[in-house]
Automatic annotation (TrEMBL):
<protein>
    <recommendedName>
        <fullName>Shikimate kinase</fullName>
    </recommendedName>
</protein>
<dbReference type="InterPro" id="IPR027417">
    <property type="entry name" value="P-loop_NTPase"/>
</dbReference>
<dbReference type="Pfam" id="PF01202">
    <property type="entry name" value="SKI"/>
</dbReference>
<dbReference type="InterPro" id="IPR031322">
    <property type="entry name" value="Shikimate/glucono_kinase"/>
</dbReference>
């Protein structure tokens, strides 16, 4: 099973934990975009020191807006190449991180949606439908307030991009991973 698997959803929803279980089950590599920001954004002129100054001087929303250009370019690059055998992203479990699947610019969202169209295994991982409950659960999991999570949950991007939704509330990470693996297997058999 060489297909790339893409996990999207808000912060603290379980993408990384579930992704690790899936990666182990399929003998694939888990690649978290959040953990590789510097190398992914570098080709587009990303300056980590400038980004930190923006956060310090202007706050979380300005920081987020600054990141959006780099997130869009990195995601577009990944999606344009991850279907090609031999590409560094081909056949991996890609944990997009919360911001990498939310696009404020409608043209950018439409472009990412078109690039994601050939990917059958795009899973939105989220505790439940209720926004307030999602924020409560994810903040409880992380142990602190998640300043942008309500925005990530309410924004239409994730639901437009997802091919499947996995609700994690009251399920273990293993049970969620099994649901994803079952959905992948069912699609292959169809």
């Amino acid at each position: 099973m060489a297909d790339t698997v893409i996990l999207i959803g808000p912060e603290g929803s379980g993408k990384s934990t579930i992704g690790k279980i899936i990666a182990d089950a399929l003998s694939k590599e888990l690649y978290s975009l959040d953990r590789h920001r510097d190398e992914l954004y570098g080709p587009y002129g990303y300056d980590k020191a400038l980004t930190e100054r923006i956060y310090t001087d202007q706050g979380l929303w300005a920081f987020y807006q600054h990141w959006k250009t780099f997130e869009y370019k990195a995601v577009a690059h990944i999606l344009q190449n991850a279907k090609q055998e031999g590409d560094e992203f081909y056949g991996k479990i890609l944990d997009f991180g919360a911001g990498h699947s939310v696009f404020e610019n409608s043209e950018e969202l439409a472009h990412i949606e078109s690039l994601m169209k050939p990917y059958a295994n795009v899973f939105l991982v989220v505790p439940c439908e209720d926004v307030v409950e999602v924020v409560r659960i994810t903040e409880e999991r992380r142990g602190h307030e998640l300043g942008l999570n309500r925005h990530f949950v309410e924004h239409p991007s994730n639901k437009r991009l997802a091919k499947h939704i996995i609700y994690t509330k009251d399920l273990t990470a293993e049970e969620c991973a099994e649901k994803i693996l079952w959905a992948m297997k069912s699609r292959e058999e169809a």
